[in-house]
Write the structure tokens for this entry.
Amino acid sequence: MRVRSAVFHRPGDPLSIEEIELDPPQAGELLVRVEAVGLCRTDWHVMQGERRVAMSPMVLGHEGAGVVEAIGPGVAGVAPGDHVVLAFIPGCGTCRWCRAGREHLCVLGPRITLGPQVDGTFRRRDATGRDVGAFCMIGAFAQYTVVHQASVVPIDRDLPLDLASLVACGVPAGVGAARHRAKVRPGDSVLVVGVGGDGMNVVQGARLAGAATIVAADVVAHKLDWARAFGATHTIDAGREDLVAAVHALTDGVGVDHAFVCIDPPRTLLPAFRATAKAGNVVVTALTPADELSLPVPPLELVTSQKAIMGSVYGFASPRVQIPELVALYRQGAIRLSELVTRRYPLDAINDGYADLIAGRNLRGVVLPFA
Ligand code: CXF
Ligand code: ZN
């Protein structure tokens, strides 16, 4: 079938809206009608050439939710009509990580930037017959996608799919970083540097975990207002104030128990590290260009302060476990989803959506491919 898709060709170019030929689902695969897909900064990094992918053209988009239209042979546990969230790291189910319930570490993870499907072949072609890749084995910036069953997580049918798309990436990444990576405990103090799609969800994850002090730092003033609505107890305008001094002033000179680096680690890691209490955690969720080889960490301070610096992807928990849990938490009123969506766009306006993200106008833009 011919499918309207937003295609990446070369770094620096906007996404190109094209009709792409999509083959039917093969063994273990499903055809999904994409109802909503979030505009995450990771796709922007790819568009800028900061996060390299192995081929082009490639359909980007990895924060998607939709409805199963058809299934290929050998698909179990999901049927046409089911609502699904697309997981940007597939869970093969058989590697040592998946067997331990740690699907965010699945052996297939390093393959998500390559382009082909899980089985190594392609389902998409352009008008000249060239293979077209799918970012994260998902390629959700399109009206339809064909994905492996390892990439889908079924959810309840009554959750609006624009909200469901958010639990595909930003919400688990942020909420999980607080709950599962740093293991924030009741009464703890937390600093979040960069309160965008990930950081705002760290704020609500920290609140959910019972943190007493949640300090949000950003250079965009209205994001600090949004952060207060999501549970921040204090805010720092990082463009005007000295982050380290401001955090020490709020914590009796001690620093926070957990700092989260959710934007530009080469620039923000050192102040976040210094704003962290002795023996505290510094969690990095933001991506850095692959050719960047170092972070500014003073080795002597690292040892003597006995702090831990750790990376976190997908909230350091299996999407298969976390996504249904987050849907349940939303239903209980324990986390916010609709307030994360700033604007909605038709597929044709996807580049406007990215312009809004980069200009700081959006917390999350969501593309509705059938709008
Ligand atoms: C990213 C996380 C790190 C690997 C590539 C995909 N995910 C989402 O934004
Ligand atoms: Zn993402």
